[in-house]
Amino acid sequence: MKNLHNFIIAGLCLLLSSCGTVSYFGDTLTPATTNVDVFYSTHDVTKQYKVIGHLNYPNGESPDVIKAKFVAYAQKIGADAIVITGSSVDTRGQTGSNVVNADALKYTN
Predict the structure, then answer these.
(1) How many domains are contained in the chain?
(2) Which residues pair with 83 in a beta bridge?
(3) How many other C-beta atoms are found inside a 10 Å radius of the C-beta of residue 67?
(4) 100 domain residue, yes or no
(5) 45, part of any domain
(6) Is 9 domain-assigned?
(7) Nearest-angstrom CA–CA distance, 65 and 107
(8) Most CB atoms within 10 A, among 19, 44, 57, 79?
(9) β-sheet bridge partners, residue 26
(10) Rounded to an integer, what is the distance from CA 7 to the centroid of its chain?
(11) How far apart are CA 23 and CA 30, in angstroms?
């Protein structure tokens, strides 16, 4: 019975850890923003900007879900826009991890 209990606990932990969260490295500005522009290339950004950080999210959900998670996180950190730069595979560890990357922007003008 104890083995079954441990198996169930391990399964729940695995299930919960498979839900992705946005990882962020960069500055957090205040106040939070309510509108975040979404771009797929820096060439499309017409305003002057500063990159305030970098986001990534595990690739495995629909593009719309990932974009919504990026936008929600960008609002919390005070970004005016994000540029979704694509996906990458990190193979430095034991297993590769496929992630979607984005840059968080703050308009300067």
Answers:
(1) 1
(2) 39, 103
(3) 18
(4) yes
(5) yes
(6) no
(7) 25
(8) 79
(9) 53
(10) 31
(11) 19
Question: Cβ neighbours of residue 19 under 8 Å, at least 6 residues apart?
Answer: none
Longest dimension (CA), the chain: 64
Could you tell me if 20 and 60 are in contact, meaning their C-beta atoms sit under 8 angstroms apart?
Answer: yes
Domain with 85 in it: 21-107
**What is the model's pTM?**
0.76
Three-class SS state of 48:
coil
Task: Answer yes or no: is 86 within a domain.
Answer: yes
Q: For residue range 4-42, list pLDDT tens digits in order.
A: 444 444 444 434 345 689 999 999 999 999 999 999 999
List pLDDT tens digits, range 38-96. Answer: 999 999 999 999 999 999 999 989 999 999 999 999 999 999 999 999 888 766 665 55
What is the predicted pLDDT for the residue at 89?
79
Residue 102's pLDDT band, with cuts at 50, 70 and 90, is very high
Q: Please enumerate in sequence order all residues whose Cβ is within 8 A of that of 52, keeping only pairs 6 or more positions apart, or say none.
A: 26, 27, 29, 77, 78, 79, 104, 105, 106
One-character DSSP codes across 71-87: HHHHHHHT-SEEEEEEE
